[in-house]
Amino acid sequence: MKLTSLINSLLSLIVLVVCLPALSQNMDNLQLKSFRPASIYKVPQSKIERAKFPVIDFHSHDYPKSDAEVDAWVKRMDQLNISKTLILSYSTGARLDSIIEKYSRYKDRFEVWCGFDYTGHEKPGWEKHAVAELERCYKKGARGVGELGDKGLGELYSKPTPDYGLHIDDPAMKPLLQKCAELKMPISIHVAEDQWMYEKIDSTNDGLMNAAKWHVDQTKQGLLGHDELIKTLENAVKNNPRTTFIACHLANTNSDMSVLGRLFDLYPNLYADIAARYAEFSPIPRYTKAFFEKYANRLVYGTDMGPTNLMYNTTFRILESADEHFYEHRMFSYHWPLYGLNLNDETLQKIYGGNARKILSH
């Protein structure tokens, strides 16, 4: 018996010695991109399938590929309490005309915005053609400009012709910005990216997975950094006080909203949309709630994530509920949990639609 017991003990020890490295190896091989935690907390969970107040989505794009898909989108908007959606087309010319035509059956439900035409921008005097095309777009039905976009190398969000090297505060942009004021066409503009995208892609990066996907290569010649791009926006807003600007994605200042708050304090012609940054601002719910309620008159709802029920319902949950520590891996690639802001009704009404109606009625 003693010999048998000794053999069994030795066998158990051998199994333990052999298996421990394998178990450790499995843990070592666990990659952050595969990390999909499920909240263990037994706390209230909300399912908000319809916005509490009528919504104007100030930041969407031309997703439908057919008239049937447009019809389905309108049906979904009816279900979700979305009264109007802005289609930021980036486009001019024939491309814009076709997009306007696509939504023409629902003129009260969609509003199409155009881009700037940078054709011939390498030649002096191109601005005259660009202003003429802007006026044509307005006559065709465009009621705003956007989404303009500059991630450091210049205006790249324009179809069919981008203008690398030209930033929103360039003197050559002045005639276009002034014409927007004259035509009462607001400008939706994306500058920079959030701070995570500029940090090293290593174990210290708080938003590693999205930061890796949207990393800004700061070695590119002529690239403006985050703060420099915010400054171009400020210059344009300051030097064109009659033009209304909407900074997309909270001006990509989600890691330090005081930067945007300072601009709000200085410039009454500046607004910001909250599109596609729900995963960035919801992890800090108390700070974000205080910021949103302080600047409730300057923020507009937006999505920029495709027209699905899951997407809309998740945004409503983050804005309206007090839910804690939940995940939505189907939409967001961050490893961190999300939290509801539990915004008060006055703030919700302004963000969902009140501020948008004010901007669109100018």
How would you describe the overall organization of this protein?
This protein is of the alpha/beta class. Helix content is 41%, strand content 11%. It is built from twelve helices and ten strands. The strands form three sheets. It has a five-stranded parallel sheet. Helix 4 packs parallel to helix 5. The longest helix has 27 residues. The N and C termini lie far apart (94 Å). About 3% of the residues have low confidence.
What are the key terms here?
alpha/beta; 3-stranded parallel sheet; 362 residues; 5-stranded parallel sheet
Average pLDDT, rounded to a whole number, is: 92
Number of helices: 12
Q: How would you spell out the order of helices and strands?
A: HEHEHEHEEEHEHHEHEHHEHH
Helix content: 40-55%
